[in-house]
């Protein structure tokens, strides 16, 4: 993905990054984040809560040094999926959001999800990435499939009907090799 540029990921600073995040999560393209009506204080409070949580972490993704995406990593045994599936050792939950732009770059979102997956699998303890996007989010289902996710089943979360999907390290490597 060298034609796209360089991606780096840093811990999110809820106070410093709240204004930027607020613009992203309230944008119409971020409807599946369910924060359309959030005020700046709501966004800051939510990411302060995540920053203080032992099993949930938020990161800011940079593209060539500029903020370009949000990544959340969580332990599904304690956050998001408690009692909704049987977690396995090495399971890591993930959310990501690409910043809205007026100048989309072909392949950019796929490059972002690939960078996110590389970051998650850089930890040798990560055996499988778990996602639970809204069943109606067809665009993210296609992206997930492109990097190796396989849907398991639909589940009911308090806030949505979700498609529970998994991607092992081997599935990710195979998908990455197939697209090279």
UniProtKB/TrEMBL annotation:
Tell me the PROSITE patterns matching this sequence.
Answer: GNAT
| Protein origin, superkingdom | Bacteria
Keywords of the record? Antibiotic resistance
Pfam families the record matches: Acetyltransf_8
Biological or metabolic pathway of the protein: Siderophore biosynthesis; mycobactin biosynthesis
Q: Report the leader peptide range.
A: none
* Domain N-acetyltransferase intervals: 7-170
- Spell out the SMART domains in the cross-references: AlcB
Describe the function of this protein: Acyltransferase required for the direct transfer of medium- to long-chain fatty acyl moieties from a carrier protein (MbtL) on to the epsilon-amino group of lysine residue in the mycobactin core.
Sorted alphabetically, which PANTHER family does this protein's record hold?
Answer: LYSINE N-ACYLTRANSFERASE C17G9.06C-RELATED
Name of the protein this chain belongs to: Lysine N-acyltransferase MbtK
